[in-house]
Amino acid sequence: MSLPRVHTLVRDHPGLNPFLRHLDIPPHAPVYWHPNGHLHRYAENGEAQHIPITTSTLLNWIVRHDPDELWSFWRHHLRGQRVLIEHTSINPVHPLHLGSMRGTVIGSGLARLFRSGGAQVQTRYFVNDLGRQLHILQRAAGTARWDNAPTDLRYDEIVGVLYAFANMTLGRRAGDLARLGAEHPWLGKVVDLHRPLPAAASIPELVRAMVAAAVTDMNHIGTRIDVFDYETDLATQPDAVLALAEQGDLVRVNGTTCLRLPGGLVPVQRRDGSLLYFSRDIANTIRRRPETWTAMLHVIGSDQNLLQTALHHAVPHACLEHISFGQVTRAGRRYSARQNRLTTIPDLLREGGPQRVHEYSLALALHRRTRPIDIAHLDTARPLRTVLAASHAGGRVGVDRGAHPDLLRRLMITLLGTPSVLARDIDRRTVHGTARHLLLLSRHYTAATHTGPVPDELGEWFRRTHTRLLDLLGVPPHATESSSSTTEFTKVSA
């Protein structure tokens, strides 16, 4: 049999790998695996060392130890850290879509990684229930005839259409309105298409229903939110803006007070003295008591780089980190709530059920978080199919000998290096390495089983590690559980 040649050296963490600790390698010494089984490391005097490790040595160690030992050192690796992670936080004017879902995948994955390493983690969702976008939506939703709304669409999907309608009406975009009406024939029965929008009416239950819809969608990929912060609960005073003068340069542009940074201007206060979103973000950061956290991670798109830099500048004592991710497009076009150009979780559920959601979730996780993604060119089905196929892989029928030793060795090296991959993802604030490791582990195991039976003990090591990685990425082991795509939410009346 001809085996594929692999020349890549794989870095490992001796302090997290129980096999390497068994060899008495210093826990913080860099160690690299060569696919032929040799360990490469450098002694304190700088001398290179090559330690031969045979397949039988690895296998003998594995069959004598329980798979749970793989995690014995990782469980305490992050103990003592208190981490706050804010992610998703979509405005309550449209459903969760694939663009914002990328932040959910990264944010919830990081939360699970930190927790698995022993850190104390709290996830947050910041609800913007004071902003201009909600005000625009309220002008359309306040007088909507909800009884005429279609029953085959979720409430948040209907709200998303109303929000686009309100924007198009205010912008007098007749062509867009005609397109929206053609795509949603029911719209004319719910709102008056050719009349000016009425004044905005406060609808608190609308915000609650939209947040509940987002939570339902996030549950499909195992996401848990611990605390919801509402803008309306913030006690923000104009004096807070004056305090910014001590941190940076304030200028006035057409009456608006702005914080001047090297990257541009950030508006903080209107001419009439009212505060803008950035100022409320400052208040929210301070209310979270930043001095009590080891790190505060904001998982948000890279288009918010300037605002996040300004926030860090305004609250320098907070351990703020902007975990930016690249834009998600479809066939080169941005997702747009104002245009109602979205691919939502209900869309995916109607297309292929919960498994379709998990296909996209894993596909998004496999890409480096800063890299832009075009959904039209994203390989979605194959990665999850590869991962799940490994769960059912068996030995080749009619083969008397076991699986090929070289393939077994690669499998065992990959298994034992799992905690070090998680540690690198924590350091890099990403889930990319974990997702790729899951795919690589699945391929190694499937390739080994194609050449013959894998020892039972090694098979158990694989299954338990594989299941844990799936859980860290929010993917059920079979990813085929039934789930309703028509979750009911209370309809809102003015």
UniProtKB/TrEMBL annotation:
Checking InterPro entries in the record gives:
Arg-tRNA-ligase, ArgRS_core, Rossmann-like_a/b/a_fold
User: What keywords would UniProt list here?
Assistant: Aminoacyl-tRNA synthetase, ATP-binding, Ligase, Nucleotide-binding, Protein biosynthesis
Q: Does the keyword ATP-binding apply?
A: yes
| The keyword Aminoacyl-tRNA synthetase appears for this protein | yes
Quote the EC number.
6.1.1.19
User: Superkingdom, according to UniProt?
Assistant: Bacteria
Q: Name one GO molecular function term.
A: arginine-tRNA ligase activity
Q: Where in the numbering of this chain does the Arginyl-tRNA synthetase catalytic core domain appear?
A: 80-352
Which family does the similarity line name? Belongs to the class-I aminoacyl-tRNA synthetase family.
- List, alphabetically, the PANTHER family matched: ARGININE--TRNA LIGASE, CYTOPLASMIC (PTHR11956:SF5), ARGINYL-TRNA SYNTHETASE (PTHR11956)
This protein's name: Arginine--tRNA ligase
Q: Which gene encodes it?
A: argS
